Amino acid sequence: MSKKPSLFSLKDFRGVRFLGRLNRLAQALLALALLFGLNYLASLPTYYKRWDLDFENRHGIWPETRAQLNELAKKAPESTSAENPWVRLIVTLQPPTAGTPPEQASAVALLHKQISRLVDDFKYEALQTRRPDWIRFETADLVKNTRLNRELEKFGTLPTNTAIIVLCDNNCRTISSDELLKLRPGERGSEPMIDGFRGEEAIMSAILSVTDGVSPIAYFLTGNGELSIDSSNRGYGLSSFAQALRTRHIRTQTLELSLLPDVPADASLVIIADPRIPISSQTEEKLSRYLRERNGRILAMIGPGTEGGLENLFFDWGLTLQDVFVVENSPQCLLSDGNYAVRNFPGKIHKTAEILAALNLPIIASQFRSVEEDLGAKEDRTRTVTPLFFSSYSQGGGLPTSWGERDYRTPPYKFDVIRGDIDGPVPLGVASERTAGTRLGVSIPGGRLVVIGSGDIATNALFEDGGNKPFLLNTVNWLIDRDVMMNIPPRPISEFRLKATPPDLAHVGWNFVFFPAGLALFGLLVSYWRKRI
Asked: Where in 322-401 does DSSP place strands (E)?
């Protein structure tokens, strides 16, 4: 009696088929293991590399934030470690629970999703710095985490809508959910709508706030009819501008210099916002000493129709403020509400206006005057004068599309060279800076002065329009040497909704069923045909 061959014998066809099936099963399992293993490793920040293909940086970390994180990593104490980080960022916002109302749950879920994505971006960028352990990212539920609550007791009662907490040594900064969202008014008096996510800006402001020992102070000059930082009036108030500075860890105070012997010693910046009364010669001398002797910083916004009283100061810094009203007739630079939209930038763009040129954002103002380099000023090799933006260029021959009108008090306006009108393009803003010397071949910044020929670009009515906000904040940051911490625009929030009728959904469903089922049937037929052969 012959011995029955084993199932695993290669001499039997059944054994060969069984082993072939085991081989294919092992291949499939190994392929799945490789697939899931690679995806798991790719999900760990240590093992992956990212490239941002969005040239407008709408969804990734901005270069300014990346540069600031690198600077903070260099400043971290030597005792910093993974167990004892210098900065702790704790996300306390939790996903919506089952009992949350639908509308509120949708908003909370959207905000939680945006925060999670942003924290992942920050984690990755922190790992790219020279000391990845300087910051630690955590998630905690303040209701359940009693240990964290005891740790935070020394900072007082936290706001009820706290979404993120940033800790550094004995400093604490909370970020509310309201600070993370940019809202715009709803249509016809309805509820405000979400227009963007400000998380990156809010987190960087909080990190700078807890890591910096001293906050810079911006003094707003008063006593000469200037615009007020305490006023919420749309045409004469600067409360929005002041609040934006405070959000960026820059303190704001008023300064009536006529009552003081000199500019305060703690002044990081002096802002002159459209004085209606000429500044006295004594105050001008104090400001000049502040610039010259203390390498001070001044931002002056002076519109047409007023004598600023700073002619000698401007002359010393190679600038002249022309008493003209800029007339603009280019359709691309005139808005429907009568305001001007400045879109003309020089070939070599200044740091403060780079974001405007990159994103094609205009400067919006109701009126401008000419501010330009004074060619008759005394030559000074330590001084550099850079124009910021101009009125429009003339197209072809004939009358210019923009010019500086001398006789602006008697309209209608007509370009007249004999009268002394300035042909366009007219310079509308200028930056002047001096170097205080060199050290190891590197120029040491001296005083800095920026003059804008408009007094209303920072008012509450126009601060949020066009590129006014990023330009003004970038200008302030450049003046106080915070060049890397430029303005961070809010991220857009994209929501995709599928609107379809039941027949449309049924049609899509049948398509998703038919093609996979057809492929499966074809595979079975091929398998049956191969067996028959």
From this structure: 325-328, 340-342, 363-365, 371-373, 383-390
User: Rounded to whole angstroms, how far apart are CA atoms 521 and 516?
Assistant: 9
Asked if 129 and 69 touch (Cβ cutoff 8 Å), the reply is yes
Going by C-beta distance under 8 Å and a sequence separation of 6 or more, which residues neighbour residue 312? 281, 284, 288
Q: Provide CB contacts within 8 A for 142, sequence distance 6+.
A: 92, 148, 149, 158, 162
pLDDT > 90 in the chain, percent: 30
Decide if 308 contacts 278 (C-beta within 8 A).
Answer: yes
CA distance 414 to 417: 10
**Does residue 241 contact residue 231 with C-beta atoms inside 8 Å?**
no
Single out the residue of 479, 476, 491 nearest to residue 246, CA to CA.
476
**Cα distances (Å, whole numbers) of residue 203 to 198, 274, 299, 308:** 9, 33, 27, 39
Q: CB 449: neighbour CB atoms within 10 A?
A: 27
Q: What is the largest CA-CA distance in the chain?
A: 128
Indicate if the pLDDT at residue 484 is higher than 50. no
Task: List alpha helices for 99-198, DSSP H.
Answer: 102-127, 146-152, 177-180
Alpha-carbon dihedral sign for residues 448, 452, 453, 459: negative
Structure tokens at 84: 């004892």
The rounded distance, in Å, linking the Cα atoms of 288 and 313 is 6
Q: Taking a C-beta distance cutoff of 8 angstroms, is the pair 163, 115 a contact?
A: yes
* Residues 360, 349: Cα–Cα separation, whole Å: 13
Q: Is the pTM for the entire model greater than 0.70? A: no
φ and ψ of 306, to 5 deg: -140, 150
Tokens of 192: 């405000």
Split at pLDDT 50, 70, 90, the class of 42 is confident
Q: What value does the mean pLDDT of the chain take?
A: 83
Determine the pLDDT at residue 441. Answer: 44
